[in-house]
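Human: Respectfully, please carefully check these tokens:
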Amino acid sequence: MSWLKPIKHWIKRWPLAAYVLLLFGVEWLLVWAFQSTTTPSVALFIGAWLPNIAGVLITAVVGGRDGLRRLFSRVVRWQVEFKWYVIAWWVPVIIVMLALSIYAVSGHALPAIAPEALVIPLLLVNVVLGPLGEELGWRGTALPLMQERWNVITASLVLGVIWGLYHVPTFILPGLPQNNVPVLAFMLGAMALNIFMVWMFNHTHGSLIMPFLAHWSFNFVGSATGVYGVPALLWLIAGLWWVVAAAIFVLDWARVVPRRLQPHLR
């Protein structure tokens, strides 16, 4: 079809813009379609997988089979130092536990923890709604495109803002998890958490397993401990993530701000 040629040409020339426009265009179309729905979980599930779908489509147009092969190879890039697995899973847990400790020491009652019977369901739900459906898009597609034109700090901050803005509909549609979450705390936390994920991605030769584990861990421990329902805790968590981000900048500056993207991260 001849009318597709100029679209493909534009996508190949501006793949990052094409990814963002496709993703947000479809997302807000869904918001319009589901604004009066009585089944918000359907909208949540579709939205959770849109980043991957958009990433695969844009990669297929820009890079063809070779591009898709490179993208999916990041999903199985597991041969990295074991410490990164520990860091990816346990740093988000420590952040949430530390925030809960500070909150309790300040004299506040802690939120109710999920019962033991819900632990496994929460682990599974938080794989499907978030990490599994997003990482091919955000860190797999958008991040390498950003790091081709910007240094790591700029790419991390821009992607963090876009990632946070993508979740805005969860503040709008009734019955979704972020209905009672302070938007600014969420945005600041997303930016700092993304810096942590990008740092791991770059240190593990572009492995998507690390951001996936961190994303999964943070979503799970947040759900299990009930922190999402307490605005003050979310502000604490956002602040602690920025402490982690600042430590990354200070302690790993030479690796954080390379002048050019390393070939294995393209």
